[in-house]
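User: Please predict the structure of the protein below. I'd like the answer in structure-token form so I can feed it into my own downstream comparison script.

Assistant: Understood. Taking the following sequence of 151 residues as input:
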Amino acid sequence: MTKVRVSGVCMPAFPTDGIVLVGVCAAGKTTVSRLLKARGIPAAVVAQEHSAVPGLYRRHGPRRVVLLCANWETVHRRRHLSWNPDFYQTEWHRLAQARQEAGFIVHTDALSAVAVTDLVAHWWFQLARQEATIDDRDSTLRRLPQANRTD
């Protein structure tokens, strides 16, 4: 596992290969991805809501799925889109598989892009800490003689 040193603390660089952001149009995917990348977190956006291919988001490889949600009124206010709520429902339906696999879901309606980014980044670094703990425990167990293991 790749490690980085931040303020004297050694922790994994990333818990996985990255994050893939999915959600309906105007949920904040592009903006949050840009802000995450500025913080050094690898993030990709997939326009899953426009695709009839249910697992399109998986083509980015082993990434954690983050679903950004916004209701119809918020989407309409943010983008002034000409489509109707039926089209919004079509997008929501196309996200069904991604919703099931999402490791983190954020309702962005009442949040700024920075607040959403803060939430996703916090979740991301919690994963890094958990995986570092598991990695350290596994390393310790590998060094113990077989008879002394308690797992």
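That's the full token string. The beta strands are 3-6, 9-12, 19-23, 43-45, 64-69, 104-107.
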